[in-house]
Amino acid sequence: MERRPARIIKNGNKLKLVMDIDQLPNLDHIETVSGSTDKFYVDYEIADIRKARPKQRRLFFALLNDISEFYVVPQEFLKSLFYGQYAQYTGGKKISLSNETLSSVSDANQLLDLVIDFMFSWHVPFKRGYELLPKEEEYYLYQCCRHRVCTICGKHADIHHLDTIGMGGNRNEVDHTKRHVIALCREHHQEIETIHNKAFSEKYHVPLKGVTLDAETLKKIGVRGKYEE
Known about the structure:
The protein has helices at residues 27-34, 54-71, 75-89, 105-121, 138-146, 186-204, 215-220, and strands at residues 6-11, 14-19, 158-161, 181-184.
C-alpha cells in the first residue's frame, strides 16, 4: 500500500478528494478491471500520521514473544522477518518502533496486521499479547470470525449475530452479508445474551456494530444462508 498526499476540494455542495501521484497508473490495467479509464473506483484510508505509540511497540513484542515460544525461534529473527515482510508489502518502505522512530501510527498498525494475520493463519495461540490486542479494530474482529476465534478470550468460537434475526426466522434463508457479527465462544455468547449488547460492549471494549462478512468468507466458515449472486 502506497501513501500519497491528498486534499479535499469543495465546489458548491460537492466534495472532491484529490490525490497527488508521481506517475500515470497503468491505463490498460485500469480499463481491464473497471471497463473504462475515464471513471474508476479506488479504496482509500485516512492515514494516522502521528508518531507510532509505545503501546503498539509493547503489543508487537508481546506477539513476537508468543510466536517465539510456540515455534522456539529467536525473537530477533521474527522481528527481522516481519520488518522484511512490511518492506515487501509497502514497496521497500522501512519501519522502526524505537523511541526515536519516524514511523506513524498507521505504519505500526500495518506491521501489527501482518503479525496478527500470521498468528491466525498458523494457529499460534495468543498469550501475553492478548490483553493488548486492539479488539475495537475491524481487521481484528474480521480475523476472529474468519478463523472462528473468540474475540474476548481466544477460544474456539461461533458466529454471533449482533442484530437479531427474529423469532421463528430461518437462518438458512437469510443473507448474512447484510448482518453484523462477532466471533464468541459459548461462554461469552451466553453472557452477551444475558447482559445484552450495550453492557457487553462496555465491559469488554468491543464495538456494538461488530463486522460484516462477504459471502465467500461466510460460506468458508460454514455459515449457511441465502446469498445474492
